[in-house]
From TrEMBL:
The lineage of its organism: Bacteria, Bacillati, Actinomycetota, Actinomycetes, Mycobacteriales. This is Twin-arginine translocation pathway signal. It is found in: Membrane. It comes from Rhodococcus pyridinivorans. Residues 29-40 have a biased composition (Low complexity). PANTHER family: OUTER MEMBRANE PROTEIN RV1973 (PTHR37042). Keywords: Membrane, Transmembrane, Transmembrane helix. Coiled coil: none annotated.
Length: 209
């Protein structure tokens, strides 16, 4: 009877140890799984700021591109405006100089003056001017000792770009001749059209208004 009781006690103790060991093992596994789950949490969740970094980088890149485009556009506009202002100034000066060269002459030098003035003209207008001066104006100037002085009283630019310009000139002319030795003054307005060729502004048309 005593041996049978001892065996039962031993068996019960073994069973308790086994159950306790199993429970401990389950608790250890659960703790390990919990630890693994904790370590597998994404950085974006553990650090909320990290999730915004890609969006911030994209936003900054977009702003940089827009800034570069804006600066380029402003620079281009400044260059274009500067070129237009330069064209207006150069064309106006050329128109004034060429108008005086074309319209002013003395009876004793009219041929040489005509040739010099023609250097500042272009296209068909150059031939038209040369023919008019040499075939009509010069013979009359020599015969009647006509001399004409021309001055520009005012000028303005109607339009201008890199290669073409239109100007308006207000002129004063003083004419003397053998028939009228006293100077006769008169005013006139002319429209001068110009073209830029090889860096020079040349007159392509002069029209009295």
């Amino acid at each position: 009877m005593t041996d049978e009781k001892d065996d039962r006690v031993t068996l019960d103790k073994t069973t308790d140890d086994t159950v306790a060991g199993g429970t401990a093992e389950k608790d250890g596994s659960a703790a390990a799984e919990t630890s693994a789950a904790d370590t597998s949490v994404p950085d974006a969740i553990s650090d909320p700021k990290a999730s915004y970094l890609p969006h911030i980088a994209i936003g900054l890149s977009f702003v940089a591109v827009v800034f570069v485009v804006l600066v380029g556009w402003l620079a281009y506009g400044t260059v274009q405006q500067s070129a237009a202002e330069t064209a207006r100034t150069e064309a106006r000066v050329a128109a004034e100089e060429q108008a005086v060269a074309m319209l002013a002459y003395t009876h004793d030098q009219v041929d040489a003056q005509t040739d010099a003035a023609a250097e500042g003209l272009t296209g068909d207008f150059r031939d038209e001017y040369t023919n008019l001066m040499k075939n009509i104006i010069a013979p009359g100037a020599k015969e009647k000792a006509i001399s004409v002085q021309v001055s520009v009283q005012a000028s303005s630019v109607v339009s201008a770009d890199a290669d073409n310009a239109v100007t308006l000139l207000f002129l004063n002319q003083i004419t003397t001749s053998s028939e009228n030795p006293e100077a006769v003054s008169s005013g006139s307005r002319v429209r001068v059209e110009l073209e830029k060729q090889d860096g020079r502004w040349l007159v392509s048309r002069l029209t009295p208004i």
